[in-house]
Amino acid sequence: MYKAISALKPSAFRPLQNSAANVTKVTPALIAARAKRTYTAMPSPLSAADLIKSNEQAPGKLFEFQAQLPKLPVPSLEETLPKYLSTVEPLLSAEEFAQTKRAVEEFAQSAQGKELQKRLEARAAEPGRTNWLEEWWTELSYMGYRDPVTPYVSYFYSYKDDKKRRKNTQRAAAIVRAAWEFRRQLATRELAPEMARTTPLCSYSYNYMFNATRVPKRPTDYEATYDLAQNEHFAVVRNNQFFIVQMVHNGQLLTAAEIESQLDRIVAEADSSAAVPVGVMTSDNRDLWADNYKLLRDAAPENAATLERLQSAAFLVCLDSSKPVTREEIHRVFWHGDGANRWFDKSLQFIVCDNGRAGFLGEHSSMDGTPTCRLNDYILDQTLNDKVDLGSSNVRADLAQPEPLRFVTPPPVVRAVDQAAERFAKVTGQHQLRVLQFEAFGKDELKRLGFSPDGFVQMAIQLGYYKLHGKNRATYEAAATRRFAHGRTETCRSVSNESVAFCRVFEDPAVSSSDKLAALQAAVRAHGAYAKACSEGKGVDRHLLGLRLLLRPGEEKPAIFKDPAYAASSHWNLSTSQLSSEHFEGWGFSEVVPDGYGIAYTIRRDAIIFHIAAMINDFGLNSDHLGQYIKEAAFEMRAVVLTEKLKQAASAPKL
Fold this sequence. Notes:
Elements: E1 2-3, H1 28-34, H2 48-51, H3 77-88, H4 94-109, H5 111-124, H6 134-143, H7 149-152, E2 155-159, H8 168-187, E3 195-196, E4 199-200, E5 212-215, E6 222-225, E7 233-238, E8 241-246, E9 248-249, E10 252-253, H9 256-271, H10 286-298, H11 301-311, E11 316-319, H12 327-335, E12 348-352, E13 358-362, H13 369-384, E14 403-405, H14 411-429, E15 431-438, H15 443-448, H16 453-469, E16 475-480, E17 489-493, H17 497-506, H18 513-535, H19 541-549, H20 559-562, H21 564-568, E18 574-578, E19 580-581, E20 584-588, E21 597-603, E22 608-615, H22 623-651
Parallel strand pairs: 7-11, 11-12, 16-18, 18-21
Antiparallel strand pairs: 1-19, 2-13, 2-20, 3-4, 5-6, 7-8, 8-14, 9-10, 12-13, 15-22, 16-17, 21-22
Helix pairs in contact: 3-4, 8-9, 8-13, 16-17, 16-18, 16-22, 17-18, 18-22
């Protein structure tokens, strides 16, 4: 069974790729300039009618609770501002905190603060508006964000090995059959809604799962969705060449044997020919890709139809010729690959290597990780445990050949492809990666020791970072808000006064193990309390963002938003997230600031897997060293807990 506490990462302050010729060199001066970036209220590219999103869906189990879901709340200033102060205090000096406290108190008492709060409450109460944050968040974090989706936006899952299906096309066929059954349940609305214990979660994002794609456009991209009943095909890419496989033949679904046969045909054809790797253009800066998308589409009349066939596919199966072995090699393949044997805009990409290794790559813009974690956990449960219905082993003789998608690529398109490939190689080459497979213990033991597994791991990350860099810095953990209609995420700020005290205590050899345990317990409790508030829509980051975006042209920016602490406390030196499945060998994404780390982790029953990504630049980051220190921290924390438990057992009265 899968568990999804987090819902991926933030988007603000990612390292921008501004130049068509090269990637901007990241320097400390550049990061300081980025910290001063602000957003003002934005005119929406959508019409007023488009902004009124209905909460009603087609009938069926999937949406049975949808109309009953509450709206995302607008916290009061009295709730948010003290909480905000508590999150910035551990990051600031006493003098800096005093300045921030004055700015916050001024905002709380000001007419402007009350007016901005009134505007936000009015926006949330507008008739027909499902979620006050939705359009802003989609635009600022995703569709309007212009850096490449890979590696900066997309995320991946690495699958456990399937020892019964070593052949690449055989494993891919089983994955397709399982995915298609999930798709059928979604299409018929038989799929049950997700629940957080007894609380139903929003199912709206399932509309963007199958037969969906992001489409590049200046100044902001958009999501295209296609009717499932009218598009019963999936796409395949091998050796940079795209094909279409019809999933229904003479009214019957293809069996796994038939899918495997079609995939074998594709491999044979693609490996005996070559094509311009147009897919690499989807890895580019979004403005450049928008220009090249138009260039590709308009290069020949048939290219528009070819794009439509690819974009309307249920999903894309990437048959890679690579044979990754080490964990870092495997994660690299699923994170970004060679850039060419992909279409990074597709919502779902299933990747199968020539040695049978398999994984998934998700486009993040319209759907967070919890629904796709569920999808992939279902696929792996079905395939690894022999639950999937593979159908007959016979292959019908009259199956048509897979349909090749051939783009016309005149010289301007070829030049654009070559330039995109150069930029892709430079961007991915700027990244370092460590995969830490921590097999000493997992969630079962952590629960026996009396800890929230997520809280314990978050503190191990804090202590590991402290060991490496000598201080604590702003940390983002994504918290899902899908208990609300069209909810996505809130920021769980993992650094607290308690977590900083815990790190200092653990690094002090003079402190007793009992005091260390008390500090650890206090830090985990503080983290849990803040995470709970976030899941209830009562964090600080989204609320403050909404207030800031409602400033009107010509209005003075309040001191709270000009205060350096506001930017510094949301400059995520650690961007973290948990998505867990017993069937995953990890998952991952990138850092979100040039001087920070991206840490995705999976907590299994008996292991914890960390994907630690960072840039190679002048900031002195080291993913290998951070991984080692996180491991060291986890062992030290566990040792303290066990020491104190042994003391308690020894002092207990003997019967």
